[in-house]
Amino acid sequence: MTERLSDLLLSPAEMAAVDAAAAESGMDSFGLMARAGAAVAASFLRFYPGAVRAVVLCGPGNNGGDGYIAARCLEETGINVAVFHLGDPEALKGDAARARLEWAGSSTPLAECEPRQGDVIIDAIFGAGLSRDVGEVVADVIGKVAGASLPVLAIDLPSGIDGRTGSVLGAAFRADRTVTFMTRKPGHLLLPGREYSGNVEVFDIGIPARIIRSKVVNRLAENRPERWIGSLLPPEQETHKYKRGHLAVFSGEAGKTGAARMSAMAGLKAGAGLVTIASPTEALAENAGHLTAIMLHEVDDEAALELWLEDKRLQTFVLGPGFGAGEKARRFVAALRDRHLVLDADGISSFRENPEELFALFADGPPRLVLTPHEGEFGRLFPDIAGDETKGKVDKARAAAKRANAAIIYKGADTVIASPDGRALINTNAPVWLATAGSGDVLAGIVGAVMAQGAPAFEAAAAGVYLHGEAGMRAGKGLTAEDVVSQVLPP
């Protein structure tokens, strides 16, 4: 399935390469700018019909050029327009200079901007290409606009947001709406950029899809079903439980068994044909008292696990929820080195002192390990990567995936899923109320179930994260982890 251009996420560098390639192909670059500015004006007229004044803040580059075009279009419709410029407008070059000339109206230095009630701000200062902190003049205007609680319509990306990482560069506008062109940028989805961008509209200004696709090198997109659905085995009329996979989830000791049961039930609801809880002897009765459709198997130590693993139908495991961190977990993971494993929570923490021990176990062959770290766990497994301030969340997840030869689910409100081969997805469908105790245990079970049904590690991770988000949406505000389990559906 070919993804829509609007589903792609191009970095600022990739988009700059697209613009250059479009110009080299003979396309009228000013015509593209004119369509972009007109799209901004159209959005303004559609969503802010009651505005007293359009205040257009124009920067020293092509983003400013889009702003001048928007100002001209709005003035032609009778809107009261005021334009403020950053830097010397006489120094503008190329299309931006032509756009300013076509505006024909006056402009005032940005430092003199005094927003007032009834204004709608059009932010055309920097866009997605900014890579340094905004200067004092811009920061001051951002503060004035925020203080007046005025609506902001941003062009491309709110000024002050890093288009690659979504981070705030000193200060940034909080836009109600953002108009971008052809594709979104990572900064539209990564936090805090997602919150600063507001509602994002993607306008097609006429750059051919072949040019855009030719410049995509980062292999980054939003996590949507079309990214992984083709890797899942379709349901068949003639099937049985083993064809749908056998998922095994390791339980913790007595008194710490609930997390494993939630994970197991999530796996069953996500479509695994069989789910078994591997339980220590002391917890058998506790687990048995709560299980019906889920099976139970006694596993106390590494020897018992090795014996159980003689059944080659057992290929996929979840270890971590409520298991306890320590030597036992490390021994069990070593025994599972040739199987498919979702390592979560205590399983991850068990390797905090020597992450390389874990990576060595799964270093060979196609990825068969899925790691599900939150921010703290990620920092313990990959301290140097986590501490690299030059990397954004996507960069960090990719580096970690490559080092571990694993699919990484770097959890958070903007969860990133990464593969050792460089593919990465940003998830957007998880509601904020999904951040509750036990939610991660449910996620691990869903991922395990999808992998048990034959999906590769990366696709299983991506599908699991998406299905988890959908379950959270169905469960609604005030949910508990048990509520999420009840709303899990197979892919």
Automatic annotation (TrEMBL):
<keyword id="KW-0547">Nucleotide-binding</keyword>
<keyword id="KW-0456">Lyase</keyword>
<feature type="binding site">
    <location>
        <begin position="411"/>
        <end position="415"/>
    </location>
    <ligand>
        <name>AMP</name>
    </ligand>
</feature>
<comment type="function">
    <text>Bifunctional enzyme that catalyzes the epimerization of the S- and R-forms of NAD(P)HX and the dehydration of the S-form of NAD(P)HX at the expense of ADP, which is converted to AMP. This allows the repair of both epimers of NAD(P)HX, a damaged form of NAD(P)H that is a result of enzymatic or heat-dependent hydration.</text>
</comment>
<dbReference type="Pfam" id="PF01256">
    <property type="entry name" value="Carb_kinase"/>
</dbReference>
<dbReference type="InterPro" id="IPR004443">
    <property type="entry name" value="YjeF_N_dom"/>
</dbReference>
<dbReference type="InterPro" id="IPR030677">
    <property type="entry name" value="Nnr"/>
</dbReference>
<dbReference type="GO" id="GO:0046496">
    <property type="term" value="P:nicotinamide nucleotide metabolic process"/>
</dbReference>
<dbReference type="InterPro" id="IPR000631">
    <property type="entry name" value="CARKD"/>
</dbReference>
<keyword id="KW-0511">Multifunctional enzyme</keyword>
<feature type="binding site">
    <location>
        <position position="156"/>
    </location>
    <ligand>
        <name>(6S)-NADPHX</name>
    </ligand>
</feature>
<dbReference type="GO" id="GO:0005524">
    <property type="term" value="F:ATP binding"/>
</dbReference>
<keyword id="KW-0413">Isomerase</keyword>
<feature type="binding site">
    <location>
        <position position="63"/>
    </location>
    <ligand>
        <name>K(+)</name>
    </ligand>
</feature>
<keyword id="KW-0067">ATP-binding</keyword>
<dbReference type="Pfam" id="PF03853">
    <property type="entry name" value="YjeF_N"/>
</dbReference>
<dbReference type="InterPro" id="IPR017953">
    <property type="entry name" value="Carbohydrate_kinase_pred_CS"/>
</dbReference>
<feature type="binding site">
    <location>
        <position position="322"/>
    </location>
    <ligand>
        <name>(6S)-NADPHX</name>
    </ligand>
</feature>
<dbReference type="GO" id="GO:0052855">
    <property type="term" value="F:ADP-dependent NAD(P)H-hydrate dehydratase activity"/>
</dbReference>
<feature type="binding site">
    <location>
        <position position="440"/>
    </location>
    <ligand>
        <name>AMP</name>
    </ligand>
</feature>
<feature type="binding site">
    <location>
        <begin position="127"/>
        <end position="133"/>
    </location>
    <ligand>
        <name>(6S)-NADPHX</name>
    </ligand>
</feature>
<comment type="subunit">
    <text>Homotetramer.</text>
</comment>
<comment type="function">
    <text>Catalyzes the epimerization of the S- and R-forms of NAD(P)HX, a damaged form of NAD(P)H that is a result of enzymatic or heat-dependent hydration. This is a prerequisite for the S-specific NAD(P)H-hydrate dehydratase to allow the repair of both epimers of NAD(P)HX.</text>
</comment>
<keyword id="KW-0630">Potassium</keyword>
<keyword id="KW-0521">NADP</keyword>
<dbReference type="InterPro" id="IPR036652">
    <property type="entry name" value="YjeF_N_dom_sf"/>
</dbReference>
<dbReference type="GO" id="GO:0110051">
    <property type="term" value="P:metabolite repair"/>
</dbReference>
<protein>
    <recommendedName>
        <fullName>Bifunctional NAD(P)H-hydrate repair enzyme</fullName>
        <ecNumber>4.2.1.136</ecNumber>
        <ecNumber>5.1.99.6</ecNumber>
    </recommendedName>
</protein>
<feature type="domain" description="YjeF N-terminal">
    <location>
        <begin position="15"/>
        <end position="213"/>
    </location>
</feature>
<comment type="similarity">
    <text>Belongs to the NnrD/CARKD family.</text>
</comment>
<keyword id="KW-0479">Metal-binding</keyword>
<dbReference type="InterPro" id="IPR029056">
    <property type="entry name" value="Ribokinase-like"/>
</dbReference>
<feature type="binding site">
    <location>
        <position position="159"/>
    </location>
    <ligand>
        <name>K(+)</name>
    </ligand>
</feature>
<feature type="binding site">
    <location>
        <position position="123"/>
    </location>
    <ligand>
        <name>K(+)</name>
    </ligand>
</feature>
<feature type="binding site">
    <location>
        <begin position="62"/>
        <end position="66"/>
    </location>
    <ligand>
        <name>(6S)-NADPHX</name>
    </ligand>
</feature>
<feature type="domain" description="YjeF C-terminal">
    <location>
        <begin position="224"/>
        <end position="491"/>
    </location>
</feature>
<dbReference type="GO" id="GO:0046872">
    <property type="term" value="F:metal ion binding"/>
</dbReference>
<feature type="binding site">
    <location>
        <position position="441"/>
    </location>
    <ligand>
        <name>(6S)-NADPHX</name>
    </ligand>
</feature>
<feature type="binding site">
    <location>
        <position position="374"/>
    </location>
    <ligand>
        <name>(6S)-NADPHX</name>
    </ligand>
</feature>
<comment type="similarity">
    <text>In the N-terminal section; belongs to the NnrE/AIBP family.</text>
</comment>
<keyword id="KW-0520">NAD</keyword>
<feature type="binding site">
    <location>
        <position position="259"/>
    </location>
    <ligand>
        <name>(6S)-NADPHX</name>
    </ligand>
</feature>
